[in-house]
Amino acid sequence: MSNTIKRINAITSLKFQTILSNLSMMSNPIIALTIVLVFRRVMANLPQANGVFRVDAFLLGLGLIMNIVSGGLMISSTSIAEEKEKHTLRVLMTSSVKSNEYLIGSLIPTFMIIMIVNLLLIPASGISYSAIHIPTFLLITAGGTLISIIFGFIVGIVTKDQTESGVTSTPILLVFTMLPQLRFFSETINKVSSYTYSGVIASYVDGIFSKDGYILNVQDLVTMATWFIVGIAIFIIAYKKRGMESD
Predict the structure, then answer these.
(1) DSSP 53-118
(2) 128 phi and psi angles, rounded to 5 deg
(3) Number of H helices, E strands in the chain
């Protein structure tokens, strides 16, 4: 057990160094926070509360989806792609590091960064922390963050370099960021969106400010759990396959 913890700590430290030494990886969370702050100022005079449209709810939903989907996916995929270019990943794969140790150690830095920004997006949107049920907020956003990071890992492992990683990540993040934004225009899109993890996040934000409030339900939990399990399974297969190819 002690050796496992040591290997996880080593990977976590390596990931922190990789992310913090490459500021481009931090661009998506920073952009999400900046856009929310700018839009809040620009849209300050629009009608809220009593109308159908609430600026604060819109900004929180927009910021969370941008940060979780774009930030989580891009940071994790780019960090692995950079390690591949430096041949660090090959060394790890051919050493005693197991796939679950690599997964946990790699998750921690990106997860912490994305979750901190998620919490900052609440006041940035003009919403008081007292207006949010924080445990539910953390549960929904943490689930979405983990899923994005895992799929980012998959992209990073199966692509050759940072350029290919970015090209592959773009259509994926576009799908998961745009579906929740387009769900109001079509019942079909709304239905499809409800079965995506980003759609669950969007529905959660809508529910916070609805008359009855958000009620945690089985469909949302199953949707999140399904995406998480599928992501983990694909990651393990991809990691082991790449490990065998590196032998």
Answers:
(1) --HHHHHHHHHHHIIIIIIHHHHHHHHHHHHHHTTHHHHHHTTT--HHHHHHHHHHHHHHHHHHHH
(2) -80, 145
(3) 11, 0
Q: Which DSSP helix (H) or strand (E) runs through 120?
A: helix 99-124
Question: ∠ CA(159), CA(228), CA(28), 5° rounding?
Answer: 55
Burial class (CB in 10 A: 0-12, 13-18, 19+), 85: middle
Which residue carries 């916070």 as its tokens?
208
pLDDT digits (tens, 9 = 90+) for 141-179: 999 999 999 999 899 888 888 888 888 988 998 999 998
What is the pLDDT, as a whole number, of residue 160? 82
**List of the chain residues with pLDDT < 50:** 244-247
Distance between CA atoms of residues 199 and 193, nearest Å: 5
Question: How many angstroms separate the Cα of 22 from the Cα of each of 34, 79, 83, 197?
Answer: 19, 9, 12, 28
DSSP state of 26: G
Each residue of 5-16: b (16+ CB within 10 Å) or e? Answer: eebbeebbebbb
Nearest-angstrom CA–CA distance, 166 and 152: 10
Look up the pTM and report it.
0.86
Task: Report which DSSP code applies to 183.
Answer: T
Tell me the C-alpha distance between 54 and 88, whole Å: 47
By three-state DSSP, how is residue 50 classified? coil
Summarize pLDDT for 207-241 with one digit per residue, the tens: 888 777 788 899 999 999 999 999 999 988 887 77
